[in-house]
Amino acid sequence: MDDKQRGDYLELVDEIQSERETKNLSAAEVPNILLPYQIAWHQDKSPVRFGEKSRRIGWSWGGMACEAVLEAAEQEGMDQFYVGYNLPMAAEFIGDCAFFCKAFAIVVSAIDVSMEHAVIDNERRDIVKYSIKLSSGHKIEALSSNPHNFRGRQGHARIDEAAFHNDLNELLKAALAFLIWGGRVDVVSTHNGDDNPFNQMLREIDAGKLDYSHHKVTFDNALEQGFYKRICLVQGKDWSKKGEKEFREHIVKQYGDGANEELFCIASKGSGVYLPRVLIERCMDDSIPVLHYALKDEDVLDDNRLVKAEKWFNDNLKPVLDNLPPDKRSVFGDDFGRSGDLSALWVLQEIEKDKWKTGFVFEMRNVPFDVQQLMVFLIIDALPLFHHGKFDARGNGQQIAEAAMQKYGPIRIECVMATAGWYSVAFPKYKSAFESKMIIIPKSEDIVADHRRVVLDKGRPRMDDGRDKGSDGLARHGDTAVAGLLAWMATEEDGQPPAGESIENTDGVYMSEATRGRRSVKMFGRGSRIN
Fold first, then answer.
1. What are the pLDDT digits (tens) for 394-431?
2. Which of 95, 140, 361, 465 is most deeply packed, by most CB within 10 A?
């Protein structure tokens, strides 16, 4: 790990600590800062504990980080090993532990980020770890998600958001080895589908097939035990029964169809969410604009619809485009919808190597074909250093996709007929961008809802058939998730290939073949020649 990465990490720890400044507390005062369900977790000394929980109720903070510090601080305690499903979770956990060390006045001898090497499947892998060493001699380490991370270690293994790990069975198998020498294992998560290994293990625990401890805390359980009162205390607000009721209604409404799974510990039927909320939220930036253009049914016959649309563009979209960095290359993805669904156009700009920030997201609802084409062309013409765009070319989307390809050329425009095979290749790349924080997106509940419409079905990611009620009160069907996916896949394009090089992809995307400066393009199942 180089000095810059180490410095960035320590800066992150300082930020987390500064957000949670408090007076020094002794270990005996823990019940004063924890809620009953967090205390119950601490009091359970079972070798293996499962925690089934609502989202964002402070379990990782008060249940896991706080306990890890207290247990590692004791001379007769043990080392602590935390595994989230991505590195930012590991860094945040260590930041929480650093906070509790300070709060309890526990002496820390070192805090650091480092890298160790392992040979996995005959291949050398780098394992990044964040660690705190205490004066007791014990340590707290937070690692990335990989079953091999637990190999050769001994102590208390803590697996967070277990349902979202790529291979929970292997991860748990590696962790259970800790029990041989008196260690402990925690498995904590919100749900991610009823066929997820986490949910299946909970069923076996409840049926008595696994002798593990099981804690379950829904959003309502947390409220009953003072969760909202604690929020009021932290935010300096007065608590009231009415305020708590309104808070609950607001949160449940925000989660929409996902409330049962996210808040009330009811696993969704059939498929699990592929892009969990916590993964999406880590990549959000509230300074990124999301613009909306909606028309009425009768506007399709308005003779001035194009003039009005261009004026709206100049008043609303042009200033945003003019404000984009002029020296960063731009790509976009466009998911088409005419009346039932939205059209969503997502622009990305490369802010550093392989890291992309959303310039803006533009949504159109109930907008006629010719107006949509005008808007898309105006946007492309104004994009700085326009590199590549991918269109959803299914159904009615063929019309605008084909027109854009004809106007801007097949090197810069690609028409995508997304199939299950294409999704199974593209979505893992998109998910990896969120896991590594190589994509920055707008802060928007609509965008979160859209991305939660990507589900894992029989091991393959796909868009499900459900709909959500958007912030405008109207239905959405994962529109920005598809646009974001197309935009991310556009970042992989290198531009025109060398003469004679063939680009092949027969599973969903109609791409081009370069031969002596001419392009042979297969569009929508038909062939044509383009000079």
1. 877 888 999 999 999 999 999 998 888 889 889 999 99
2. 140
Statement: residue 501 has pLDDT above 50 = no
Tell me how many degrees the CA angle 286-287-293 measures, rounded to the nearest 5. Answer: 90
- pLDDT at residue 4, rounded to an integer: 52
pLDDT at res. 11? 53
Listed in sequence order, the residues at least 6 apart from 171 whose beta carbon sits closer than 8 Å to its beta carbon are 83, 145, 146, 147, 150, 159, 162, 165
**C-alpha to C-alpha distance for 346 and 271, rounded to whole angstroms:** 27
Q: What is the token pair recorded at 185?
A: 């294992």
CATH number at residue 372: 3.30.420.240
Instruction: Judge contact between 332 and 488, C-beta under 8 A.
Output: no
Q: Which amino acid, 483? A: A
Which structural domain, as residue segments, surrounds residue 398?
Answer: 277-493
Domain annotation covers residue 530:
no
- Is residue 477 located within the same domain as residue 406? yes
State residue 118's pLDDT score.
Answer: 42
Distances from the Cα of 146 to the Cα of 68, 166, 350, 424, angstroms: 20, 9, 29, 22
Its pTM stands at: 0.58
Residues 87 and 193 in one domain: yes
DSSP 362: E
Q: Are residues 198 and 302 in the same domain?
A: no
Residue 84 identity (one-letter amino acid): G
For residue 167, tell me if it sits in a domain.
Answer: yes
Q: How confident is the model at residue 113 (pLDDT cuts 50, 70, 90)?
A: low
pLDDT band at residue 460 under the 50/70/90 scheme: confident
pLDDT at 12: 45
Query: What's the half-sphere exposure (Cβ side, CA atoms, 13 Å) at 207?
Result: 7
Alpha-carbon dihedral angle through residues 79, 83, 86, 91, given to the nearest 10 degrees: -30
Would you say residue 451 lies in a domain?
Answer: yes
Q: How far apart are CA 8 and CA 12, in angstroms?
A: 6
Pairing of strands 184-189, 156-159: parallel
Residues 219 and 292 grouped into a single domain = no
For residues 170 and 24, state if they share a domain.
yes
187 in any annotated domain: yes
Residues 167 and 316 in one domain: no
**pLDDT reading at 476 higher than 70:** yes
